[in-house]
Amino acid sequence: MKVYKLKNGVTVPQVGFGTWQIKEGELAFNAVSTALEVGYRHIDTAAVYGNEVSVGKAINQSNLKREEIFVTSKLWNSDRGYEETLKAFEVSLKKLNLEYMDMYLLHWPANAKQFDNWRDINASSWKSLEKLYEEGKVKAIGVSNFMREHLEALLPTATIKPMVNQIEFHPGFMQEDTIALCEKESILIEAWSPLGSGKMLDNEVLIAIAKKYNVSVAQLCIRWVLQKGHLPLPKSVTPERIKNNLDVYGFIISDEDVNRIDALPYIGGSGLNPSEVEF
Ligand code: A2P
């Protein structure tokens, strides 16, 4: 599969398999096993998804070598802070039953609504990620759901800068301000919910454009994310859809149609605003 190169030279398969909301147990095991069988080489999980054991089992039981698969997990909010972060990383690694992680992310920024010292909290969690990276326990480190204000506070405190920022991104939810900063800092954008959690699939403009290329709206959205230079993380538990979502290299969306998708009216995201959520 085609890859993106992170600023530290590490390569990441361009389409990742998202596992948010895929329940621990057979469902997660089967979904990840199917994803690996049909060609995904990048699996994205998180401590809070509660499915690391089954995700790890599917990875370990596949016929692939460990180094062929890029595995990401994330620090949950209740584990913020220097020591806590180091411990939580080990717990995730153990659940996954892996020797190393390819990437570890801070899942959500501590924000100003929750904490007066949100800047310090994020900076101290980040220090642990730097340590894990320096020790070689993880090949890349980054953040998730960091908006411009959170990045602007974190970057001056960081010795090693985040290599990715995983945010909600899909047609109708363009996150221009945060993305402009990330592009300036060479931070790769990973897009969670590239299909808007499924709500973009009945959009008339997207349906018409998808028809033109003889693809599904899901394929169109995923391909659009790629052409924007970002890394899509589609999620599905349905084998045909898992396969369909990876089949995005057989067509190219014209600049004109990319512009039409870019220009869709603001639709909004999931409602989880990183500057305000309190969890
Ligand atoms: P399911 O998991 O039941 O297959 P997102 O990645 O934006 O969060 O969207 C995930 C949602 O979109 C899930 O409800 C998933 O359903 C659905 N979905 C994923 N891929 C497709 C597809 N190719 N066609 C239709 N629906 C899809």
From TrEMBL:
Sites marked Lowers pKa of active site Tyr: 74
Classification via Pfam families: Aldo_ket_red (PF00248)
Residues that bind substrate: 107
Swiss-Prot/TrEMBL keywords: NADP, Oxidoreductase
An annotated Gene Ontology molecular function: oxidoreductase activity, acting on the CH-OH group of donors, NAD or NADP as acceptor
Active-site residues, as the UniProt record annotates them: 49
Coiled-coil ranges from the UniProt annotation: none
Family matches, as InterPro entries: AKR, Aldo/ket_reductase_CS, NAD(P)_OxRdtase_dom_sf, NADP_OxRdtase_dom
Domain NADP-dependent oxidoreductase, first and last residues per copy: 15-264
Protein family according to the UniProt entry: Belongs to the aldo/keto reductase family.
Protein name: Aldo/keto reductase
